[in-house]
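Data deposition worksheet. Section B asks for the primary sequence of the deposited chain exactly as it was used as input, without tags or linkers unless they were present during the calculation. Section C holds the resulting structure in token form. Section D is free text for depositor observations; keep each observation to a single sentence. Incomplete worksheets are returned to the depositor.
Section A, Depositor: J.P.
Section B:
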Amino acid sequence: MIAPANLSRITIPPLENGDLLSRAEFERRYTAMPALKKAELIEGIVYMASPLRFEPHAEPHARLITCLGFYVAFTAHTRIGDNPTVRLDLDNEPQPDAVLLIDSRHGGQTFLSDDGYIEGAPEFVAEISASTATIDLRDKKRVYRRNGVKEYLVWQVMNRRIDWFSLQEEEYISLLPDAEGIIRSRVFPGLWLAVSALIEGDMPSALAKPSKRIATLQAGLNSDAHQEFVQQLASFPNPA
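Section C:
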């Protein structure tokens, strides 16, 4: 006699790379997998991650998370997530490497479902691309733009390049480093990244403004724009 647990594994087809599925079927098969691994649904197609290597993915991922976490620590009503599942629409359920959110109670455009998943488009999404640059810069970029992700960062590790896109009038435009090599977020005032130093793995310099040796992120957090942003989030919703 087949035990109920074993029966469920037989009746529910396994999740396979390249499957064409609805989001509901994707979640049903994913939940039934005996050993969970990273899987995403992009434009109705299943993508399953290969084992992640240290230098091409895990280490740069950690560097970026460090910067984003530092920002969140000093910016009330913002939240950071590492590899969360995001329910964007009926054909797309990605699992981005990092997300930065404005709390839904303070004007953010996402919320958490009853079963704990992000519903809607995070304000900021980041992907570390070692072997997935084509997907990240084509299919995912199109999906994130269409669903209203306001800023999208792609770190192409092999190409030693960071692309940071900002949603302007329903199109992504590139945010470029200034004369000191720093990119400044338009959605999260005070979120400043020293691009070259971050790519090189020079974290002390990545956290310092080269000309004055002032912490780059700390300088951003001390800016008037950041203070105004924090006050804006704190006052939401406006009683008036």
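Section D:
Residues 24 and 90 are 8 Å apart (CA to CA).
Confidence is low (pLDDT under 50) at residues 209-213.
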